[in-house]
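Appendix B. Raw example, untouched.
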Amino acid sequence: MSSDVQSIQEWVQRESGVVEELLTEVRKVIVGQRCLLDRMMIGLLTGGHLLLEGVPGLAKTLAVKSMADAVHGSFQRIQFTPDLLPADLTGTLIYNQKEGTFVPRKGPLFTNFVLADEINRAPAKVQSALLESMEEHQVTIGDTTYPLPEPFLVLATQNPIEQEGTYPLPEAQVDRFMLKLKLDYPSREEEREILDRMGGGQRPQVAPVVSLERLDKAREAMQAIYVDDRVKDYIVRLVHASREPSEYKLDLQGLLQYGASPRATLFLAAAGRAHAFLRGRGFVTPEDVKAIGADVLRHRLILSFEAEAESLTSDEVVQRIFDAVEVP
């Protein structure tokens, strides 16, 4: 087994150069936000969708567009508004008078990178139009189902303030996002650098530096990363602890309505592999799982009214789970 891990390690180190090339190009525009760029790379490698939450002006939209520009892929931005219709995303059938037939007009979802800007400003029926595309990578228009281009990645942003005129995302859709990130303000030094770099007349531009073919090779190497049985058991115990906290001596009685779904187990393993890949390792450690765990689990735990009354957050519950589950 050790020789297999060694060969995977060499393979990963050869292909992981794509990460630094992408990040170097994106950092021409984005200052700081290391965690955001790290998680966007994980989404790009695994094909997992990202939900970015933060106050206005934190470069959420700019970061997504810059990452898409650095890859030789197609990009569409959809501004979610209360009057948006599902057909504005998926497309619709148009009647051709000359031939007397209906022909499909494909919507903006038919692209590699979709920026769903302020996704919580559209009603539930529009948000639900994304469900099929995010899970099955396909869109149904009329009676015909059309495959979406690969890679297909949805990066959605939402604003945690100004709740008037917003629509909470359905739990079924939130669960389809691999990661949910909470963004914070930059440091004073980073903000000064933002002013120097972006406050002038000419702003830096991002050029495409990585092809989709090269990205596929990096994904192939990432998927081959070794996950030991003990690490797999650790992942399963973490997710199971969110459903049966009493088995792990967790005092969460009455605070959790629902734990994480089996999709969380799969996403923890996939994100752990990607986290190891970013660091040039051919195997996953428990530290990889812990580093990515909060972003995978925080939006999958449904807290009770009692938890909200005690001002308990899902991040605090996730931390309790990681503290309670024994690390292999």
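End of appendix B.
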